[in-house]
Design a protein that fits this description.
Bound molecules: guanosine-5'-triphosphate
Strand content: 5-15%
Protein name: diguanylate cyclase
GO molecular function, one term: diguanylate cyclase activity
EC number: 2.7.7.65
Largest sheet: 6 strands, antiparallel
Number of helices: 21
Catalytic activity: 2 GTP = 3',3'-c-di-GMP + 2 diphosphate
Pfam families: GGDEF (PF00990)
Length: 659
C-alpha cells in the first residue's frame, strides 16, 4: 500500500511533464504530439495500475502496445515485404502530410516504452519476467542518454529531454511499486536477472555497433553514388564540348557567312541532341551576329547586332576567340531566356591561311544543362543542386526531409568550376537502410527475456526440489520414529516394562497356543513377604528384586522349554508344555533353589523365598481360567502351609473332558 502510494507521484510527474512540454511547444508538430501521446497513454495506464484498477490498466495499455508493435514492425519488416513508402502512405492516411517517422519514436524509445508497458501487464510477477522488463527498460533509457553523443547517425535514437525525463519518471514509479513484490523470490530473481541482463546489454551493444556499421556503409554508398553521378555529368559536359568543336570545325570550308538554310539544318541537329545549347549563332570578324538558330522572333531581332556593343559581359571572351587565341567562354551571365548561362565562342579559321573568319557562338543554358544532366536521377530520392560559389544555378528534388549526408563535387564547364551537390532524401535512405540492427536488438532482448524466464523457473524448481527432499527426509524420520513408537507400544502391550518378561495378556496367548499340548503345566509363583522388602528396603530395591527374580525365573523356565511371565504385582506365572505335575514341580524346585543363591535377602539377611502352586492338564480340553484357578488354589495352600514351598493341585480338582 505504502509502495503503491509512493509510486503514484512519479507517474503523475511523467504526465505533468508531458503536458507542460506540449503547452510550451505551442503548436507542436505531429511527431511531438504523437510521441507525447504514446508516452502519455502508457503513463495513464501505469497510473491506473498503481491504483490497482488492473482491468482498466490493461484496457489502456493494450492500444499503446498495439501502436508500439506497429512501430516495431515498421523497423523490422524487410523493405520488399512492406516498403517504407507504404508506411508513409499509412501515416499520411492518419494525418495528411505526415510520415511514418512522425508516428514512430526512435527504436530505442519504442523498445523502452514497450518494456515499460509490459511491466504492468506482468503485474510485478517475478515469474513472468517483470524484473528483466524493468531492468531492460532502464538499459534502454541509459542508451538514450548516451545517444546524444551520436547525433551523426541517420536517425538519432534519443527523444527530447522532457520525454526522456517522463520515461525516467515512469521507470521510477514502476520500480517503487514492484520492488516489494519480488522480495519473496529475490534469490531466484538475482540468479536469473544478472545473466539475462548481461545478454540484454550485449544485444544493445551489438545493435549499436551494427547500426554504426550499417550507417557508415550507407554513407559510403551515398558518397559513391554522388561521385558516380558527378562522373557521368563530367562525361556529358566533355561530350558537349567535343560536339561544339566539331560543329565549329565543320564551317571552316564555307563562305562567310555560311548559307542560312545549311546553317539552320546543321544547327538544328545539335540543338536537338544538346537541348541546353539554347542558341547557336555565327558571328563574323566584326562581331556581328549573321546566323542564329533557332529562328525565333526574339532571335530574328538580334541578327545583325554587333556583340561588342550589345553584350559587354561577353566582350573579352569574344575578343579572345576572334583574335584566334582559342575558345573564349564568358562568366556566368543572365541570358535572355531568363536563366543563367555561359556563352562559348569557338573560332572558325580559313583553311588556307588560318585566319579567323568568324566565331560560332554557343549559348549554354545552365538550368537546361542541369535539367538534361539531372534527368536520369529520381527527384524523389535525391536532391541535386548546382552552384557557382554561393549562387544557386539549378535545383532538382525536394527541399524538405533531406537526409543528413550530402556529397559535393566540382564540375568544370569551360573555365568555370561549379559545385554539384547530391543529397539523398531521408525516406530514400530509410528505405535502403539495413533492418539487421533492429532485428538484432529485438531478437537479443527477446532472448534475454526467455533466458530470464528459463533461469528463474529452473531456480524455483531447484528450490522446490530441495524443499520436497527436505520434506521427504522429515517424513521418513517421522515414519521411523512412529514405527519405533508403534513397536514399543506393541511390545509394551504384551510385556512388563520392569522385568521385561511377557505380561499376563501375552502369557494367556501363549497358553492358548498350547491348547493341544498334553501334558501342560502352569506354575503360579508368589514372592513371600514381599511387602516387607518394600517397607524396609524401599520400593526401588523392591523393583530391583522383582527384576532379578524375573531374570532367574526366565533362565530356569526357559531352560525347561517353558514361558515365564509376570502375572501382576509380585506374582509370576510359567507355562511348561509337555511337562506333567511332577516334572513341573522339579522345575519349580530348581527355581526356588536358584533364587536362594541369587543374593536377594530381607533386611535381616534372610533370603527371599517363593511359594509356587502347580496345576497340570494331562487330558481334556484346556480352560485357561480353570487351570489358573487350580494353580492359584495350590499357591494359596503353599502360602497357608508356611510359604517357601511348592504345592500341586490335585488332579481331581481339574476339569475333565465332558465333565
Ligand atoms: N516394589 C514393588 N512392589 C510391588 C510391586 N507390585 C506389588 N508390590 C508390592 O508387593 C506387596 C505384596 O504384598 P502382599 O500382597 O501383602 O503380600 P506379601 O507381603 O508378599 O505377603 P505374602 O504374599 O502373604 O507372603 C505389596 O506391598 C505391593 O506393594 C512392584 O512392582 N514393585
Amino acid at each position: 500500500m505504502t509502495q503503491r502510494l509512493a509510486a503514484l507521484p512519479a507517474t503523475a510527474a511523467a504526465l505533468l511533464l508531458l503536458a507542460l512540454g506540449l503547452v510550451a511547444a505551442g503548436t507542436p508538430s505531429i511527431a511531438d504530439a504523437a510521441g507525447s501521446a504514446l508516452i502519455g497513454l502508457v503513463a495513464v495506464g501505469q497510473l491506473v495500475w498503481h491504483l490497482r484498477r488492473l482491468r482498466l490498466a490493461r484496457l489502456l495499455l493494450a492500444p499503446a502496445l498495439g501502436w508500439l508493435a506497429l512501430c516495431l514492425l515498421s523497423y523490422l519488416l524487410p523493405e520488399h515485404w512492406i516498403a517504407h513508402a507504404t508506411w508513409n502512405r499509412l501515416a499520411a492516411a492518419l494525418a495528411p502530410g505526415s510520415h511514418v517517422n512522425d508516428w514512430r519514436p526512435p527504436l530505442l524509445v519504442v523498445a523502452t516504452l514497450t518494456l515499460l508497458a509490459l511491466g504492468p501487464l506482468t503485474r510485478t510477477r517475478a515469474n513472468l519476467g517483470a524484473p528483466l522488463l524493468l531492468a531492460s527498460a532502464a538499459l534502454g533509457l541509459a542508451g538514450q542518454l548516451l545517444e546524444h553523443a551520436h547525433a551523426h547517425t541517420l536517425l538519432p535514437q534519443a527523444t527530447d529531454g522532457i520525454r526522456t525525463t517522463a520515461l525516467a519518471c515512469l521507470l521510477i514509479g514502476q520500480l517503487i511499486d514492484t520492488l516489494g513484490g519480488w522480495r519473496a523470490t529475490r534469490g531466484s530473481v538475482r540468479r536469473a536477472l544478472w545473466p539475462s541482463l548481461l545478454l540484454a546489454l550485449l544485444a544493445m551493444a551489438f545493435w549499436h555497433h551494427q547500426r554504426a556499421l550499417s550507417d557508415h556503409q550507407l554513407r559510403t554508398e551515398v558518397e559513391a553514388q554522388g561521385q558516380r553521378l558527378a562522373d557521368r555529368l563530367s562525361d556529358e559536359i566533355g561530350a558537349h564540348l567535343a560536339a561544339m568543336q566539331r560543329f565549329a570545325a565543320s564551317w571552316e570550308w564555307h563562305a562567310v557567312p555560311p548559307p542560312d538554310a545549311q546553317w539552320q539544318r546543321q544547327a538544328a541537329l545539335y540543338h536537338r541532341d544538346f537541348g541546353y545549347f539554347l542558341n547557336i549563332a555565327f558571328i563574323d570578324a566584326d562581331s556581328r551576329i549573321r546566323r542564329v538558330h533557332p529562328l525565333t522572333a526574339l532571335n530574328r531581332g538580334v541578327i545583325g547586332t554587333r556583340l561588342y556593343e550589345a553584350q559587354p559581359a561577353g566582350r573579352q571572351a569574344l575578343g579572345h576567340a576572334l583574335a584566334g587565341e582559342g575558345i573564349g567562354s564568358t562568366e556566368i551571365i543572365g541570358l535572355l531566356q531568363g536563366q543563367p548561362g555561359i556563352v562559348h565562342y569557338l573560332p572558325v579559321r580559313r583553311p588556307d591561311d588560318g585566319d579567323v573568319m568568324g566565331v560560332v557562338g554557343m549559348v549554354v543554358g545552365l538550368q537546361s544543362l542541369a535539367d538534361t544532366l539531372f534527368r536520369r536521377v529520381d527527384p524523389r530520392a535525391v536532391a541535386l543542386t548546382l552552384r557557382d560559389g554561393e549562387r544557386l544555378l539549378a535545383h532538382q528534388g525536394p527541399t524538405e526531409r533531406q537526409g543528413p549526408w550530402r556529397h559535393a563535387t566540382t564540375l568544370t564547364i569551360g573555365a568555370k568550376a561549379l559545385t554539384l551537390t547530391s543529397r539523398p532524401t531521408l525516406d530514400a535512405l530509410l528505405a535502403r537502410r539495413s533492418r539487421l540492427p533492429a532485428i538484432s536488438l529485438t531478437a537479443g532482448l527477446t532472448l534475454a527475456y526467455l533466458l530470464y524466464l528459463a533461469l528463474f523457473a529452473r531456480h524455483r524448481m531447484v528450490l522446490q526440489h530441495r524443499q520436497v527432499r527436505r520434506s521427504n527426509r522429515e517424513l521418513r524420520r517421522e515414519v521411523r520414529s512412529r514405527t519405533r513408537l508403534q513397536q514399543e507400544v506393541e511390545w509394551l502391550a504384551e510385556h512388563d516394562e520392569l522385568t521385561r518378561l511377557p505380561n499376563r495378556r501375552r502369557f494367556l496367548q501363549v497358553l492358548a497356543e498350547q491348547a493341544a499340548t498334553r501334558p501342560l503345566s502352569v506354575l503360579l509363583c508368589d514372592v513371600d513377604h514381599f511387602k516387607l522388602v518394600n517397607d524396609r528396603l524401599g520400593h526401588l530395591m523392591g523393583d530391583r528384586y522383582l527384576a532379578e527374580l524375573g531374570r532367574q525365573g526366565q533362565a530356569v523356565i526357559g531352560e525347561a522349554g517353558g514361558v515365564f511371565a509376570r502375572f501382576g504385582g509380585e506374582e509370576f506365572v510359567a507355562c511348561l508344555p509337555g511337562r506333567d505335575a511332577d516334572a513341573a514341580a522339579a522345575v519349580a524346585e530348581r527355581f526356588r533353589a536358584r533364587l536362594a543363591g541369587a543374593g536377594l535377602t530381607h533386611e535381616d539377611g534372610t533370603p527371599i523365598t517363593l511359594s509356587v502352586g502347580i496345576a497340570s492338564l494331562t487330558e481334556g480340553p484346556l480352560v485357561e481360567d480353570e487351570l489358573l484357578q487350580a494353580a492359584d488354589d495350590a499357591l494359596y495352600r503353599a502360602k497357608s502351609r508356611g510359604r517357601d514351598r511348592v504345592e500341586i493341585a490335585p488332579p481331581r480338582a481339574l476339569p475333565c473332558a465332558g465333565a
